[in-house]
Write a structure and sequence with these properties.
The chain has helices at about 5-10, 15-25, 35-50, 135-140, 165-170, 180-190; strands at about 65-70, 75-80, 80-85, 110-115, 125-130, 150-155, 175, 195-200. It is α+β, with helices and mostly antiparallel strands and about 200 residues long. Strand 6 (about 150-155), helix 5 (about 165-170) and strand 7 form a beta-alpha-beta unit.
């Protein structure tokens, strides 16, 4: 197996540490280390520019996304069948629908995946089409700025807290965050324009 495929396979299977080891072997300028956090950061830094993340016909079919905020779960769906399920983190004020810029809430309602950014401030990001018409009408009624740039994304490129914090906290400004390994799967299994139903 090639080094690039080893990285890809390890991350898709959810073994970020294994992926980091594979990456260290192929990339001399990433220092070898026994710390799993540093290994993960090395793999993440090298993955996006080295792997062309495009959907494959051999991947499972997904036609919509359901997010259940209270459960902290995201479900990739084929009709009523759950194809994949992921643990998520929400905005730091997780209860209730997003209403205005800066409220640290994750939206609730029907949206679509609108665009992708492989080189964002986080490990891959997919934008959600917030605000929708209802969000804009509510914001205008109250003379609020509705906010925007709501994404599904992985961890920050520069970690300011421990991995434990990101794994066990609602830490975003209103986005939906997943692990880097899960973000690769979500990127590959979804497409722009796909509906996403975000529920309380």
């Amino acid at each position: 197996m090639s080094s690039s495929r080893a990285i890809f396979t390890a991350i898709v299977l959810g073994c970020a540490v294994c992926a980091a080891r594979a990456n260290t072997a192929m990339t001399p300028n990433i220092p070898a280390t026994t710390g799993s956090g540093a290994m993960i950061r090395g793999a993440r830094a090298a993955l996006a520019p080295r792997i062309k993340l495009v959907p494959s016909p051999s991947l499972p079919y997904v036609n919509r996304i359901v997010v259940k905020k209270a459960e902290r779960r995201m479900y990739l769906m084929d009709g009523d069948k759950v194809v994949r399920s992921y643990k998520i983190a929400l905005g730091r004020d997780p209860v209730g629908a997003k209403q205005r810029d800066g409220d640290l809430r994750t939206p609730e309602g029907w949206y679509r995946l609108s665009r992708r950014n492989p080189r964002s401030e986080y490990f891959l990001s997919i934008e959600i089409s917030y605000p929708n018409t209802a969000d804009l009408q509510r914001a205008r009624l109250h003379h609020w700025q509705p906010g925007g740039s709501i994404m599904i994304h992985g961890l920050p490129n520069h970690l300011n807290n421990s991995l434990w914090y990101y794994q066990h906290s609602d830490w975003t400004d209103g986005c939906i965050a997943v692990s880097d390994a899960d973000m690769v799967q979500i990127w590959l299994l979804t497409r722009d324009g796909m509906p996403i139903d975000i529920r309380p």
